[in-house]
Structure formats: structure tokens, C-alpha cells
Design goal:
Oligomer: heterodimer
Structural class of chain A: mainly alpha
Shape of chain B: globular
CATH superfamily of the largest domain in chain B: Periplasmic binding protein-like II
Structural class of chain B: alpha/beta
CATH superfamily of the largest domain in chain A: MetI-like
Order of helices and strands of chain A: HHHHHHHHHEEHHHHHHHHHHH
CATH topology of the largest domain in chain B: D-Maltodextrin-Binding Protein, domain 2
Radius of gyration of chain B: 22 Å
CATH architecture of the largest domain in chain B: 3-Layer(aba) Sandwich
Number of strands of chain A: 2
Shape of chain A: flat
Number of helices of chain B: 15
CATH topology of the largest domain in chain A: MetI-like fold
CATH architecture of the largest domain in chain A: Orthogonal Bundle
Distance between the termini of chain A: 51 Å
Chain lengths: 420, 362
């Protein structure tokens, strides 16, 4: 230990105070780190890594290059713009790749992959996979075209060449209704097949409507709960939370029973003579159904932050405003409401972000006009197995949410958001 | 595998008669009435015959394909046997997720000695897929809400003859074929036509005529519920679901079999499963002639083996003859639309996009 300069502060055992302090600080930092480490590891393993992996799939494209490795190498000096089919060596390599792929059962996957870009590739690869091993000698090109004439189609070869890179933009293009043309330039998807942009728009629009409705419905009830005596407000709170504890499917099914054309509400309206038997309202299996059911399900997410913020506003503020001459309305708008802004922001952003990714309820009650982009992500995850496209759609949705978050931060300031 | 057998033997020796060492087979199926029919027809009898085998049901067949792929990617296949529709099985086979089956060696012959591959015949659509049942998507209508009962597929598209809402499945599969058939196209021309732009346009033009009156369903239980509630007057539905709506729940519904959509459901064996040998033994039993016929006692789906058809008897609890309720019964199968699996594998993605874009147009 270095000699202690005179006049320097030391602890009882003679260590300089500065050193001892730094040591204590480091120890408490390590302790804090130790406390958050399990959570951090948990988030990393269950959240960041899977999401990162999923997002990576939206550009990952190694399958074609790996399975058709000989063909892709042979295609290196083929010019897709030449207007001529690749030469004999490429076809020979293709036959070898097919024979190998048949054993490993990998060519089928390539067919499925390429079929996302061009209809018919799936059956072409399946058929060729079954027959390629019978080709033992030249001429390979003629033999392959004899198996299926599509091997003589330039577009097929341009596609193989284009998708042989390890990374592809085609999933993102598909996710925004664009596509590669056969020549490799980017064009809009045929009009009859454009769906995703419209769905993104619809998802944002419906989420906005649902958030607004939740706010309009949730604000008065929260106000009531915050101002009523504890016993009554507890009862109200239980009523708010009760649906929250009920199964989502049960609640959604209840809405179906209530809202359908032969349902309770329509029966009541017909019985009271408000509408005729032939004019029963369609309130479910369409956009209205999605809005109603989702507003109901997401309402607690608005009420809880609003309530906890309102609870902290001292009643004396309103009394002060009144005593200074404001009428009840002015006092409420000018004094009370600005104080709830933090809760409004928190509730709105919570509801909006949950709504944007919701898919069970829209799938059950949304019909055709009320389904959201998340339903298509689920479709591509579970049914079509086009995980690349699902990942691209999910990444765009994530980007949209982050963009809105930044916008919110710019407009309102994220520091103003409070959950209680 | 050998190590395992030794381990099992050891365990059995140690247990010394107290309990049998168990091999647990995880069998994935559709749940509900369908799994119940499998349980009674072959899981229970097999477990009674082989006390060392325990069959565990997992009802996640509707996500079978995506979960199977996720398991294969994680290299941790926990399923031993999966029930799938034929088109998914072909995809699974293409993706290398499931084992190829040697039909004649792995499966039992028919009682008269006909080989398995011949007995299944045309039902073998993939080298990885063992068909169990034939099911169909057909139409049910409310007998009390339609004035003239529908008799042909054209009636489904005829708003004057059958006014009111109709339920259709929310996917292009079957619907676009029905649209063309209703428009007077012959069955042999349907897929040639659908492979052209004009043909697809024609199918959608026909669907446009009823679009405003269609309620689209996505889950198998929904169309029968829609019919029971009177939400729709006619709906496409799986024939087994309609059967239970009509015969078990006594709803005023009748069936219209014209151009029923024919499809297959059956078994695939996941690659990398841990009990492959035990599963193959079970499969030999579960897909034999008698077992497939037994299953039809509990649910109105047709057995996939030709030799099973004459053995189909009465419903186990209702006591009615099941033969006339089978999609394969002569009176019901005058006109059939078999799933063109190959065509749908090629054009399914495009058709789905076009269908959803058409729906979204409002």
C-alpha cells in the first residue's frame, strides 16, 4: 500500500476513504447486478433471442443455395438477361443435386420455398425429385425437360438464380404488396392479390377506434371510482376486474350470443318494435363485432392506469379552483383533466399496443371486414408455414409500434406517462 | 434403442410384477368426438392387449404441421404419431419431417390377404401418409327455413330459390371449385380452368353473386352452430359434425351431398421420434381392417380401407345403421369432388392471397 499523504482522509484501518468508498460502491453495484441478472437472463433467453431469431428469418434464405449447391455454383456465370437457358453443366449439376436432395429429403423444401415466389414450383420439385435418379448420362438438359417442360422455362431459372443468395428481400416485398418480376425488377403485386397494406391500415385504424372508445368509456368510470368512498369504489373495481378474470374465449363467445342476428339484442329490438324482423342488425362477424368485443376486453387496461393516476389527485385542487371562481365544468377541464394526462397516455398506449397485435378475438368475431394483420401472421405461422413472410409482417408491425412510440415521446413525452 | 430395451427389461425385473414398465406413446389428434372415436376403436383395445404401452392423447393436431416443424428445428421431437389431413402430410413429407412408410411390410393385409397398398388403393397419396378416414365437406340446410330443399350445388348459389344467409368455410379451397361447378363447368375442366386467369375470374364472378349473403366460418364446430341458431339457412360443414347435429342433437337439419368435397385424414410418423418401433407396431394394429371399421361406429367418417366398408355396423349408442351416413355410401357419392392436393400445393398461396384480397374488398 502506498504511503498515505498527510492530511488525506482515511478509514479506521488506514485505507484512504476514496478507495474504500469506491470499493463499497463497486460491491453494491455488483449486488444490484446480481439481483437483476436472473431477470436479464430470462428476458434474453425467452424474449430477445427468439424475437431476434424470428426477425432474422425475414431475410434468411440459405436453403436454396445449400441444397442446390452444385447448381448454384454452376449458375454463377449464367446471365439471366441473356435470354438463353443455362448450359449442359448446370443441368448436370441439377441432376446431382436432386439425387442427393432426394436422399436427404431436402428438395421438397426448396420446392415449397420457391413456390412462395412462383406457383407450380412445389409440384415441379416433387415430380423431379421422384424421377431425377433415373437420369444417368448426358444429355442432361433434354432429360430434365423431358421430365417436366418447365425446366425449359427461363423464368424458373431466373427465380432459382435470384433466390440462391443467402439473404433475400422477397419476404419484405411480399409483406408490402410488392414482388420481383421475372426479370428481377420490383413491381407492385397484381391488384387481385394485394392485401397486406390494406390490412396494416385497417389494423392501425381499428386499434385507434378501440383505444378512443376505451378512453371514452373508461374515463368516467375511473373518475367515479377515484372519487367515491372506498367501499363503493372497491365494489366497482371488482366489477371492472371480473371480466378480466374470465376466460377470453368465454367472453368472446358471450358476445356472439348477444350480438348475432338471432341473438339477444336483436330479439329484444324486434320484440320492442324498434326494428322490423327483416332488418335485424348485423353486429357480429364484421368490423363492428371486432370493435365491440375488443373494446370490452381491453377496457381494464385503460381503467387501471387512469384510476391509479386519478387516485393521486388531491380533491383540494378542485375545491381550490371552485373557490377561485371557476364553474364545475371549467374546474374539471382546466384543473382536473390536465392532471390525468399521464394516466390517459399510459392507458392509451397500453390499449393501442395490445390491440395492434390481437388475433384470437378478431378471428372469432371479425368475419371478413374485422380481421387484422395478426390473423395473417398466425396464418403464415401455422397454416402456410411461410415463416419468412410471417417474420417480415411481424417485423413491420414491430417497426410501426416503435415509430408510434417515438412519435408519442416527441408529442407528449414518455416521462409524462405514469401507471400510478 | 437397444440400451433402452435393456433398461426397460431391467426396470421390469426390478418392479417384479408390481407394475409393468411403460412405454408412453404421444399420439396427436383433433380432440373432441374424433379423438374419442380413436380412443374407443383402437387406443383402448391396444392398451388392454399390451399393458406395457400407454397412449397419451395430445389434441393439437390443428397446429400439427407448424409444431412438427418447430420440433424438428429444435431437434427435440416429443410426438410419436400425428393425425393430419392429407395435404399437410404431403407438405410434412416434402419438408422431410416425417418417415416414409413401407405400406406392405409395415401394415396389416386385409383379412382376405389383399396387400395393404392394394387395400388402401387410391387413398395412398403420399409415401409418408397412412390414410385412416375419408371425410367430406358437404352441405347442411334448415328443413324448416327453406321453402324448396336444395338438391344441387347450383342451388347454393341461387338466391332466388334459397333466400337467406349461407355459411361457407373461410378459405378458397372447395369454394372456388363449387363456384365453377355451379356455373356449369364439368368436373374434368375445373382445374384446367382454375389454372387460367379467366377461370379464376369466372369463379369469383360466381361467388360475387352471393357474397353479401355469406357468413364465413373458420372452425369446424361453427357451421352447425350457425345452422342450429338459424343464423344461416344452408352451410358447408364437415359431414361428421352435421351427423352429430342431426342425429345426436336432433336439430332440424338435412344434408345435401351434391359435389361433396372429398378429403383424407390419417397418420404420419414424425422423424426423430423416440419410440418409432413401438409406434409402428401400434400402427399395424390401429390401421387394420377391423379397427378402421370399428371407428365408424363412433363417428360418421368412412374407413379408408376398401375391405373395411362391409364391416361398418351400427352406431355404438344411437343404434342406427352407419352405412347410409358415410360419405362413401352410393346414394351420397353420386357426385364427388376429390381434393386435388397437388394443384393446391402449387397454387394454394396464390389462391389464398386472391381470396383474402377478394374478401377484403368488402
Amino acid at each position: 500500500m502506498a504511503a498515505i499523504a498527510p492530511g488525506q482522509l482515511t478509514t479506521a484501518d488506514g485505507t484512504p476513504l476514496k478507495v474504500s468508498f469506491a470499493r463499497a460502491l463497486r460491491r453494491s453495484r455488483l449486488k444490484a447486478l446480481g439481483l437483476v441478472l436472473p431477470l436479464f437472463a430470462f428476458l434474453l433467453i425467452t424474449f430477445l433471442v427468439p424475437i431476434g431469431d424470428m426477425l432474422f428469418r425475414s431475410v434468411e434464405n440459405q436453403l436454396v443455395g445449400r441444397v442446390l449447391h452444385r447448381t448454384v455454383a454452376a449458375l454463377a456465370d449464367w446471365d439471366p438477361a441473356s435470354g438463353e437457358l443455362p448450359g449442359e453443366p448446370v443441368f448436370e449439376a441439377l441432376v446431382a443435386d436432386f439425387v442427393e436432395g432426394r436422399e436427404n429429403r431436402t428438395t421438397g423444401r426448396v420446392g415449397v420455398r420457391l413456390n412462395y415466389e412462383l406457383g407450380g414450383m412445389s409440384s415441379l420439385f416433387r415430380k423431379t425429385g421422384r424421377r431425377a435418379k433415373r437420369i444417368r448420362e448426358a444429355p442432361y438438359r433434354a432429360a430434365m425437360i423431358a421430365i417436366d417442360e418447365r425446366w425449359g422455362n427461363l423464368d424458373v431459372w431466373r427465380l432459382v438464380k435470384r433466390e440462391s443468395d443467402a439473404y433475400t428481400a422477397s419476404y419484405y416485398l411480399a409483406a408490402v404488396d410488392l414482388r420481383f418480376t421475372a426479370e428481377g425488377s420490383i413491381a407492385r403485386q397484381e391488384e387481385e392479390r394485394q392485401i397486406y397494406l390494406r390490412l396494416f391500415g385497417r389494423t392501425l385504424w381499428l386499434s385507434l377506434i378501440i383505444t378512443t372508445l376505451c378512453l371514452l368509456l373508461g374515463y368516467p368510470i375511473s373518475y367515479l371510482m377515484a372519487t367515491l368512498p372506498v367501499r363503493t369504489s372497491n365494489l366497482l373495481m371488482i366489477m371492472v376486474l371480473l371480466p378480466f378474470w374470465t376466460s377470453l374465449l368465454v367472453r368472446t363467445t358471450c358476445w356472439i350470443a348477444l350480438l348475432q342476428q338471432q341473438g339477444v339484442i336483436n330479439d329484444l329490438l324486434v320484440w320492442t318494435g324498434l326494428i322490423g324482423e327483416d332488418n335485424r342488425l348485423s353486429m357480429i362477424h364484421n368490423r363492428t363485432g371486432t370493435i365491440i368485443a375488443m373494446t370490452h376486453i381491453l377496457l381494464p387496461f385503460m381503467v387501471l392506469p387512469l384510476y391509479s393516476v386519478m387516485k393521486t389527485i388531491p380533491p383540494s385542487y378542485m375545491r381550490a379552483a371552485r373557490s377561485l371562481g371557476a364553474n364545475p365544468f371549467t374546474a374539471f377541464v382546466r384543473v382536473y383533466m390536465p392532471n390525468t394526462a399521464a394516466g390517459v397516455g399510459a392507458g392509451s398506449i397500453l390499449v393501442f399496443i395490445i390491440a395492434i397485435g390481437y388475433y384470437i378475438t378478431p378471428a372469432l368475431v371479425g368475419g371478413t371486414s374485422g380481421t387484422l394483420i395478426s390473423n395473417f401472421i398466425a396464418h403464415h405461422m401455422q397454416v402456410s408455414l411461410n415463416w419468412g413472410l410471417a417474420a417480415a409482417l411481424g417485423a413491420l408491425l414491430l417497426a410501426a409500434v416503435l415509430a408510434l412510440y417515438v412519435l408519442y415521446d416527441k408529442l407528449v413525452g414518455i416521462d409524462n406517462m405514469r401507471l400510478g | 434403442m437397444q440400451g433402452k430395451t435393456i433398461a426397460i427389461g431391467l426396470a421390469a425385473a426390478l418392479a417384479a410384477g408390481a407394475a409393468h414398465a411403460q412405454t408412453k406413446l404421444v399420439v396427436v389428434s383433433w380432440g373432441g368426438a374424433y379423438s374419442a372415436s380413436q380412443q374407443k376403436a383402437y387406443h383402448d383395445p391396444y392398451m388392454a392387449m399390451n399393458p406395457e404401452i400407454e397412449i397419451l392423447n395430445d389434441d393439437s393436431a390443428s397446429e400439427g404441421l407448424s409444431k412438427l416443424r418447430a420440433m424438428a428445428e429444435a431437434n427435440n421431437v416429443t410426438w410419436d404419431l400425428v393425425d393430419m389431413i392429407a395435404s399437410d402430410a404431403i407438405t410434412a413429407c416434402d419438408e422431410g419431417l416425417v418417415l416414409e412408410i413401407d405400406f406392405d411390410n409395415a401394415l396389416a393385409s386385409a383379412p382376405d390377404g389383399t396387400s395393404a397398398s392394394e387395400d388402401f388403393g387410391d387413398m395412398i397419396v403420399s409415401e409418408c401418409f397412412i390414410p385412416q378416414i375419408v371425410y367430406s365437406t358437404t352441405f347442411g340446410y334448415r328443413t324448416d327455413l327453406v321453402k324448396t330443399p336444395p338438391t344441387t350445388i347450383a342451388d347454393v348459389f341461387d338466391l332466388e330459390k334459397i333466400p337467406g344467409k349461407r355459411g361457407l368455410e373461410k378459405k378458397p379451397l372447395a369454394n372456388i371449385e363449387w363456384a365453377l361447378l355451379a356455373d356449369g363447368v364439368a368436373l374434368e375442366d375445373v382445374y384446367d380452368m382454375l389454372s387460367t386467369r379467366e377461370g379464376i375470374d369466372r369463379a369469383y364472378a360466381k361467388l360475387d353473386t352471393i357474397k353479401s349473403e355469406v357468413v364465413w366460418w373458420a372452425k369446424g364446430a361453427v357451421p352447425v352452430q350457425l345452422l342450429a341458431d338459424g343464423e344461416v339457412v344452408i352451410a358447408s360443414a364437415y359431414n361428421g359434425r352435421l351427423f352429430s347435429g342431426i342425429e345426436e342433437e336432433k336439430q332440424p337439419i338435412a344434408m345435401m351431398w351434391d359435389w361433396q368435397w372429398f378429403d383424407l385424414d390419417g397418420w404420419v410418423v414424425p422423424k426423430g421420434g423416440k419410440n418409432t418401433d413401438a409406434v409402428m407396431k401400434f400402427l399395424r394394429f390401429a390401421t387394420d381392417t377391423q379397427r378402421l371399421a370399428d371407428q365408424a361406429k363412433y363417428i360418421s367418417y368412412g374407413p379408408a380401407r376398401m375391405s373395411s366398408a362391409p364391416l361398418v355396423g351400427k352406431h355404438a349408442t344411437l343404434g342406427i345403421e352407419m352405412g347410409p351416413h358415410m360419405p362413401t355410401a352410393p346414394a351420397n357419392s353420386k357426385s364427388m369432388l376429390p381434393n386435388n392436393i397437388e394443384w393446391w400445393a402449387d397454387y394454394g398461396d396464390e389462391m389464398n392471397e386472391r381470396f383474402n384480397a377478394w374478401l377484403a374488398k368488402g
